[in-house]
Design a protein that fits this description.
The protein is of the alpha/beta class and about 270 residues long. Helix content is about 40%, strand content about 15%. The longest helix is centred in the N-terminal third of the chain and has 25 residues. It is globular, with a radius of gyration of 17 Å. About 5% of the residues have low confidence.
């Protein structure tokens, strides 16, 4: 089965959703909700993959520092996810949109029966004009938040899996960087933005570097892995800066922004 030409998965990371103090970035959440609501009004189907639960939960619990103990991470995730969904429900509600929460872990994706049920759930929600909001189920799954080699990498990989599962036309990864560079722009002033990448190979991965931002866990490598998965299934992937969510208008209008990882023909 081919992709749905009017279906877009948008992934937003912790560094975009929170400010330097670790609190929710209310302006960004509101602008993201407005922009996605408006794009849906243009006839697009929207799926939002959202991170940030642990960081926001830790702040709301008034923890002195980011938790390191598993049970405290999971407690923070439970609190933060509640806060995230409250804000999304509030802001999307301003624009007469209904949202739904879907929490996943790796086992849900690996089991064929669960995967089919998930796909059917997404289809039912989208048919009703509801915007699914997806996150890793950190309050239950220990593998993701304890593993050194994360499965989903601040949900970059999760967004690709969701895009494939839902047969989306585009996956947009909103980051705290303008796109994929030939070297780390935070370290090299001469770094150049690569606007289009047709092939993801060992050379591309070598350029990706390692860790992500201070508040997020997804580096450029996880974004490359996500693009690798999605483009192989005929899905265009755009990595761009999420500081101003209105950049999504440019993407749906076909304007050049960030880095486009071109879909392979399937």
């Amino acid at each position: 089965m081919g992709v749905n030409r009017n279906r877009i998965v948008v992934k937003v990371g912790t560094s975009t959703l929170t400010n330097e103090l670790g609190n929710s970035n209310l302006r960004t959440v509101e602008e993201l909700s407005l922009t996605l609501s408006d794009i849906q009004n243009k006839g697009y189907e929207i799926i939002l993959v959202s991170s940030g639960a642990i960081a926001i939960g830790a702040q709301k619990m008034h923890l002195a520092e980011k938790p390191t103990e598993l049970r405290m991470k999971q407690a923070a995730a439970a609190v933060g996810q509640c806060e995230n969904m409250f804000l999304y429900d509030k802001f999307f509600g301003y624009y007469n949109k209904t949202v739904a929460q879907i929490l996943l872990n790796a086992d849900d994706i690996g089991d064929e029966e669960k995967k089919e049920n998930l796909a059917n759930t997404f289809e039912a929600l989208l048919e009703q004009g509801i915007i699914p909001i997806v996150n890793e189920n950190d309050s239950v799954s220990y593998k993701e938040i304890e593993s050194d080699e994360k499965i989903f990498g601040d949900n970059d990989m999760l967004s690709a899996v969701v895009a494939v599962l839902c047969r989306a036309d585009k996956l947009v990864i909103l980051s705290d960087i303008d796109g994929f560079y030939d070297k780390d722009p935070r370290l090299w002033k001469t770094a150049k933005l690569m606007k289009r990448i047709e092939l993801i190979d060992e050379t591309t991965y070598a350029l990706a570097g390692g860790a992500g931002s201070r508040r997020g866990t997804g580096g450029m490598r996880t974004k490359l892995q996500a693009a690798d998965i999605a483009t192989a299934q005929g899905i265009d992937v755009i990595v761009t800066n999420g500081k101003d969510p209105r950049i999504l208008y440019d993407i749906v209008d076909g304007k050049e922004t960030g880095t486009l990882f071109a879909a392979k023909k399937v």
